[in-house]
Design goal:
The complex is a heterodimer of chains A (about 250) and B (about 280). With about 250 residues, chain A is an alpha/beta fold. Helices cover about 35% and strands about 30% of the residues of chain A. The radius of gyration of chain A is 18 Å and the shape is globular. The N and C termini of chain B lie close together (about 10 Å). The chains are: A alpha/beta (about 250), B mainly beta (about 280).
Chain lengths: ~250, ~280
């Protein structure tokens, strides 16, 4: 589904951040990307999603068998890539409901379809909100405006549910969440899991991985994946920290 | 693309026609009342809102090249004033507010060049004055808002928020001053002017000022100039929303404060449609 080979990228202020990433994700898999702050985790997710703040300088980035370098962020989204933000943006005056309607219908237009009929859309939105235990009253509030940390993340997973992506990338979804919010968000993600879709969980802590169980754990450090293992790697990192792994790369 | 640049007016609200210099008093009828002001020609209107009355005045005339308002709010009166500018206009507003009265202005400018000058007087204690504006400048239109807001009496509040979006070679300016008299203590007065520049040929001037002669007041003012927030655009694009649609959503969001003051859906939706049609 996702094939990344020797990917290098820099930020728009000229810093080389990714220095040769190799990563392959198949349908049905859950990958966790861990690593200390500043190792390039968020940059990797930004580059996959097409954030113009980062410039790909080398290597290849393929999704569903196709190079996606030249695609805009919205075209990547239409192909099935979803990025959940660490800090979701507040948009006053635009309700969650209208926002998701716009997103769904723009995707349909890209596929040559008409707007989704209003009744069907309403049913789908209600169903997905229930899935992530999002209070329906949130749907008529301005997107993320005045939402708590947990509410913002729940709204992110709600959007993910409504857009049903092939590949969901969750960037530090656990940051700022208490344990109840974490469980609800993780439950939502688990319910959406299927043999056809895949998830990349980017996290600093192993805590989230108690709820979203990864098939693979990758450690990213200084722009490279320095170790890959199974779930037990995350537990080992929890116990021993990163020092034993990164000392050879200092 | 839809190039609509006019407002279709609702037929079921009371109309006031101004075809020469006139004087009108709106009384307390016990109900909240809405009026549509239809003006033609360059005239003046002396408008009195009677004690305790609660009135909404909507104006979207397109044939008033020059117009002068003199508005008098008697004690406890409340006026919501909504004005949509879509043609070239030069307008002066003089407002006098008696004790505990409330004035709220939504000034929306989407087309044409306009020069608005405001002299707002809080003449009684407990008044509240709110002025919110949204201007979307395109081509070579020039819009200038000059505001002098005088707090003559204590225990009053005022709030100004003017949002400008400047595209093409438009020129928008904000010159706002709050003047607090020496004995006008316990005033809360805020003023802000936020600007988005969409084109390097566009021009924005922002000059918020405070002139405070009392010592026990809370006042602030500020202005910002920037571009559309790149992070917000990427956020929306990552959800599959096209770049242009995302720009439109951000502009709508930027205008939310003045637009959300317009409770009349039939009117607000038309304004939103015009804004959406202006994107390019």
């Amino acid at each position: 589904m996702l094939e990344i080979k020797e990917l290098t990228a820099r930020s728009d202020d000229g810093n080389d951040i990714l220095k040769g990433i190799n990563l392959t994700v198949h349908p049905g898999e859950v990958h966790a990307i861990m690593g200390p702050n500043g190792s390039g985790k968020s940059t990797l997710s930004s580059v996959i999603a097409g954030n113009p703040k980062f410039i790909k300088t080398g290597g290849s980035l393929r999704f569903m068998g196709e190079e996606i370098d030249e695609l805009s962020p919205e075209e990547r989204a239409h192909k099935g890539i979803f990025l959940s933000f660490q800090y979701p943006v507040e948009i006053p005056g635009v309700t969650v409901n209208n926002f998701i309607k716009t997103a769904i219908n723009e995707k349909r237009h890209s596929q040559g379809l008409e707007d989704m009929p209003a009744g069907e859309l309403l049913r789908m939105i209600k169903e997905k909100a229930a899935l992530v235990e999002l209070d329906p009253r949130f749907l008529s509030r301005s997107l993320n405006e005045g939402f708590s940390g947990g509410e913002k993340k729940r709204a992110e997973i709600f959007q993910m549910a409504a857009l049903s992506p092939r590949l969901a990338i969750l960037d530090e979804t656990d940051s700022g969440l208490d344990i109840d919010a974490l469980r609800i968000v993780a439950n939502g993600v688990n319910k959406l899991k299927s043999p056809e879709n895949a998830t990349i969980v980017i996290t600093h802590y192993q805590r989230l991985l108690d709820y979203i169980v990864p098939d693979y754990v990758h450690v990213l450090y200084k722009g490279r994946i320095i170790k890959t293992g199974g779930r037990e790697l995350a537990l080992e990192l929890e116990e021993k920290g990163y020092d034993w792994l990164i000392k050879d790369y200092q | 693309m839809n190039r609509k640049r006019y407002i279709t007016l609702s037929e079921d609200i009371t109309t006031i026609k101004v075809e020469h210099d006139s004087r009108t008093t709106l009384r307390n009828t016990g109900e909240k009342e809405s009026y549509l002001l239809l003006c033609s020609g360059s005239h003046s209107l002396e408008l009195t809102i009677e004690k305790g009355a609660d009135v909404t005045l909507i104006e979207a005339s397109d044939s008033t090249p020059e117009f002068r308002y003199e508005i008098h709010l008697e004690s406890g009166a409340s006026l919501r004033h909504i004005r949509i500018d879509l043609t070239d206009k030069k307008t002066s507003y003089t407002l006098h507010q008696e004790r505990d009265s409330r004035y709220e202005l939504s000034l929306i400018s989407l087309c044409g060049s306009q020069e608005n000058s405001f002299a707002m007087h809080s003449d009684g204690e407990g008044t509240d004055t709110r002025m919110c504006g949204f201007t979307y400048g395109q081509t070579s239109y020039e819009v200038r808002n000059t505001i002098r807001l005088y707090h003559h009496k204590p225990h009053a509040t005022s709030y100004q928020a003017f949002k400008y979006v400047a595209d093409d070679a438009s020129r928008l300016s904000f010159d706002g001053k709050i003047i607090v008299d020496p004995h006008a203590q316990k005033i809360e007065a805020y003023q802000k002017n936020n600007n988005i520049l969409l084109n390097e040929k566009a021009h924005i001037e922002s000059d918020p000022q405070l002139e405070i002669y009392a010592d026990d007041v809370r006042c602030s003012h500020g202005s910002t100039i920037g571009q559309l927030d790149a992070d917000a655009l990427f956020y929306m694009q990552s959800r599959g929303i096209n770049y242009m649609t995302a720009c439109g959503i951000l502009i709508r969001s930027f205008a939310d404060e003045p637009l959300s003051m317009i409770k009349e859906e039939w009117l607000r939706e038309q304004i939103e449609d015009i804004i959406a049609s202006m994107l390019k």
